[in-house]
Amino acid sequence: LSNLNITIEQDTSLPPAKKVKIDQSYKLVGERVKVSGWIHRLRSNKKVVFIVLRDGKGYLQCVLSGNLALAQQTVDLTIESTVTLYGSIVKVPEGKAAPGGVELVVDYYEVVGLAPSGDEAFTNKVAEGADPSLLLDQRHLTLRGETLSAVMKVRHAFLAAIRRVYREEGLTEVTTPCMVQTQVEGGSTLFKLDYYGEEAYLTQSSQLYLETCLPALGDVYCVQESFRAEKSHTRRHLSEYTHIEAELAFLSFDELLDHLETLVINSIKYVLEDPVAGPLVKQLNPDFVAPKGPFMRLEYKDAIKWLVEHDIKNEEGEPFKFGDDIAEAAERKMTDTIGVPIFLTKFPVEIKSFYMKRCTDDPRVTESVDLLMPTVGEITGGSMRIETTDELLAGFKREGIDPSAYYWFIDQRKYGTCPHGGYGIGTERILAWLCNRFTVRECSLYPRFSGRCKP
Ligand code: 4AD
């Protein structure tokens, strides 16, 4: 058998092939189709070649036999080469599994682009178990893997779900600026940039801008990148992340918590109901249980007691006391032990931001909330906001911030103030919880963190 003598030609007597994406092909048993994609897996037993084709919409098992399997063109195929295959969709035999329950019996195919073999082969570039930093250099290739691409599909469904809930709850979407001249969450994590000779920053949070939208548009939200020059390498901090933020007017702290609970429960419910994302969550996180309301509500002062009782120490290795920041490790231990979503509320003024409203019954603490999820910890931070100019100016003073750049934000208190509050959700954090990922880096397309700004 000489491979070189075999030419691959299309049999023109066959019915015309319908051009489809892989997910559509599953329903076309008995029909002749044309599908294009990347060779995800390749296996041959001399007489028959099996290809798993990938096109981003699904995976399709394809079978080449006879001359098609023997031709030199087929012998030369490599993983990640692109091909256009023509053939009939058939049901896989009883007891055999394949994506969509079907396979493509190929009658003709064309090579679109041959990927390298040998040292340059795809499998050498993204070898399993390779150093994570090498894999991050090859992020453009690792994205093609089953796990990362599944997380990105769940991410897509989650962002669609969150927008659906906001629509149902009557919030309007706005697009806030990324280049700003104000800080929101502390000067130490600001990315500075030279803006035509003036100092500017990459935004840490769109909150202040959202607050200015309330009188114009009512309740609002945005899905915008936020930037934090985090010095520490942790599994839940990125330098750039997708921040889902909302701001609501004329509501109480309890109403804010109720709204947040509805948002989280319904958006997760919609993801799980999604025909693509639902099964992917099951695959990534088989033990995932959809959260049910009402969420546990735990005041900061009671969390401190809980930490002391459970012998969990603060950053200095001492027992926790009122006023301590509950840092990542302790927070995670507490959340994992309790094992359910927790609204941790009423943090002391000193450990929170300048804009947070004090509680009327205890001015040492604020109407603030972190939503904590098992395995990840904090996924959301929010609060009610200070309503009067004087109190806001005192907040700036306490934090050592020059208020002059904030004139437009202060004006909100001058031209018709109102009780209002909002929150920010870290998209990659909620996904890490939903998809059971060890780090938020796995939930970002091209993660940025200290030391990594490429590709
Ligand atoms: O708690 P944070 O800092 O709150 C704010 O920025 C408020 N201004 C939001 C608001 O009220 N509109 O951040 C909110 C959330 C956190 O709970 C976390 O999920 C995420 O943003 N986050 C990060 N995610 C990844 N990497 C980082 N470096 C993050 N910093 C915060």
TrEMBL record:
Domain of life of the native organism: Eukaryota
Keywords linked to the UniProt accession: Aminoacyl-tRNA synthetase, ATP-binding, Coiled coil, Cytoplasm, Ligase, Nucleotide-binding, Protein biosynthesis
Subcellular location, record wording: Cytoplasm
Any Gene Ontology CC annotation: cytoplasm
One of the GO biological process terms: asparaginyl-tRNA aminoacylation
TM regions (residue ranges): none
N-terminal signal peptide: none
GO molecular function, one term: ATP binding
Enzyme Commission code: 6.1.1.22
Catalysed conversion reaction: tRNA(Asn) + L-asparagine + ATP = L-asparaginyl-tRNA(Asn) + AMP + diphosphate + H(+)
Domain Aminoacyl-transfer RNA synthetases class-II family profile: 152-447
Protein family per UniProt: Belongs to the class-II aminoacyl-tRNA synthetase family.
Name used for this protein in its record: asparagine--tRNA ligase
Whole-protein coverage range: 93 to 547 of 547
